[in-house]
Amino acid sequence: MYEAMISRGNPAALVFLVDQSGSMSEPLAGASGKTKAEGVATNLNRLLQNLVLRCAKEEGIRDYYSVGVIGYGATVGSALGDALAGQDLVPISQIGISPLRVEERTKKVDDGAGGILEQQVKLPIWVDPVAENTTPMTGALQRARTILEPWVAQHATSFPPIVINISDGAPTDGDPTAAAQALTQLATSDGALLLFNINVSAGDGSPIEYPSTDELLPDDRARLLFSISSVLPPFMRNAAAQEQLHTTADSRGFVFQAGAVALIQFLDIGTRPSNMAVADAPAT
Amino acid sequence: MPERFRVFWDAKLGSPAKEFEDAFWPGTPGTGSGVERRYAVADGATESSYSRHWAELLVEAYGGGAVSPGALIRALPDLQETWRSSHENTALPWFAAEKVAMGAFAALLGVSITGEGTDRKLSALAVGDSCLVVVGTDEGRSRWPMKSRWPIKRSGDFGLNPALLSSAADPDSQRPLIRRRHVELAPRDTLFLMTDAIAAWFLREAEEGGRPWSTLLDVAPGGDDGFREWARDLRTTGAMRDDDVTVAIVDPE
Questions:
Q1: How many domains in chain B?
Q2: Residue-wise over A56-69: b if at least 16 C-beta within 10 A, else e?
Q3: What are the structural domains, with CATH classification, of chain A?
Q4: CA–CA dist A180, A183 (Å, integer)
Q5: Entry pTM
Q6: For the domain that residue B48 is a member of, what is the CATH number?
Q7: For an interface test with B, which of A3, A52, A117, A284 has the most B Cβ atoms less than 10 Å from its Cβ?
Q8: Which one of A119, B106, B149, B203 has the lowest number of neighbouring Cβ atoms within 10 Å?
Q9: Three-state SS at A198
Q10: What is the pLDDT of residues B70-81, one digit of tens each?
Q11: Interface-testing mutation among B95, B196, B240, with chain A (most A C-beta atoms within 10 A)
């Protein structure tokens, strides 16, 4: 299980559910004044950029992945805009050619001779920060199932979809348990859909990362998110170990009270199939 | 006794030949002659763009005389400029421009043979995980001992993200680790120059008591089609990792 090689004939699906509620305008712990919404958008854009670059070849971008970014706040729907507006699951080649804009930043780099060079770097932007209204998380999970049910039927032998839910609060549209269970019942021959949850935080509390039980979780909201999170497959546990994070065979893909660092690690570990050797794109 | 050079290659399963990213030198099979005979394989990294071009530039440079680490290091700036000027273009979309800026990467294995008969000497150079195996033989004996396997000695040592040669002239990057080896060859020694996936299969077979050199020499008369059918069977059954594969065989004619 969770060993299917990713190829153009057997692509993978990644869906991000992004909380866009009003409280996402609060500062993100450890993010130098950035709001939670800004921190999430920055990291999602960086992740999408890296994903596109991994798939880009001289002839264009190879469709190893389809990606969805579903925002939930004032509404539940695709957070992608312009040419991708309204599209729930988009081949990575279309993501690559359709950012909202490409920003240029100046980066200082070592010139190798003791000096500093200023280098222009391009930052494509697909997702802008949004923070308004409530937290319809249950609706977002239902939307993910609607999007992925036909995908699973069409890709029965692919690596199963990964859904990453990024939020700072509790659902305001009812208990999400049934919606999460319906979502994780989707499966390919390589395993059940993986649902990972991260709770981003403004506070100074240490993050609780990849717990095996809910015994040490501080409140019902944390226990709820733990209960709907999938167990980490072994290769993701290896990825966590590379980040010096301790996990067990029962560890869930769940982080509570995450600041900026834990968010970056979580996205890296949770999307680790993007680093797996794909069937027609090994290292050399 | 002249040397015979044969080369067999195949792209990954389901990939068209135009996506094949290995390269070899000489570009066609033939008979080696002259004071110094040079043979090379290079393995372009799939994650970079225009890797095949970079792999071709490297084997051509080796074939053209960059056979020592110093000569290769001196040749690199011109090779990097050739690659960059071929692909840099202000009209490229952001991702293509970024990939060109990141450069292409490739492993390189080259062998240079001098002398004749009992006086043959081999000098090899390697960056990355392409692999040379020298198999010796005695007429009439059934066992062909592996005299040399290099720079990787065990099948389990592949997949460790080897340092590769980059087409990007990055002042931050360290000088690549270029390995060097010399071997005294017997008249009937056979050389196998292999990119990583088939080299890993070869060493694993040998570790398990098999005779992969015999297998390859048995497959060779079937030509390109026979080799590809054999390679695809190995990949389909999981006996060989699904990657571009190249094997060059240099043996007494």
A1: 1
A2: bbbeebbbbbbbbb
A3: 12-99+125-275 (3.40.50.410)
A4: 5
A5: 0.83
A6: 3.60.40.10
A7: A284
A8: A119
A9: strand
A10: 999 999 999 999
A11: B95
